[in-house]
Amino acid sequence: MREAVEISTKFLELLTTIDKTYDALFEEVGKIDKETQDLLHDLEFGTFCGRDGYKKAKRIKEIRMRRRALKNTMELVYPMKECFKNHANLKKELKRTVDRMRSISNEQSSRTYIPRVCTELKTAYKHYTPDEIVAQDIVKRAS
After folding, report:
1. Reduced to 3 states, what is the DSSP secondary structure of residue 6?
2. 61, 56, 29: which is closest to 41 by C-alpha?
3. Is 6 in the same domain as 66?
4. What residue numbers bound the domain in which 142 lies?
């Protein structure tokens, strides 16, 4: 069952990461667009010679290729972002669920049995994890 907590936690992290990733990509594309406009204005208002023109064109190409890579990533992330947007309460509910699962797991790890009548039992007031109980059962069967 620890796997369920881990998987749920990873899914919750994914939900949080999707929004942050998309927003960061969107912001970076905006910066690149402004950089492109600066270079285009430089071409428009500046002097244009062979060597400098080539450098400027090469820089614009690099910027556009970076922008395309970011836009492709945004395009891949967008459907998931929209899905989670349509299920806004899912993230909150999943966080509450994961917190409850962790709380229960913590309680179970410190739980002890308190006998109601037979207080002389050897197992009284001791804690056994499920793994220990299974191991004890295997040892008993072997002997």
Report:
1. helix
2. 56
3. yes
4. 113-143
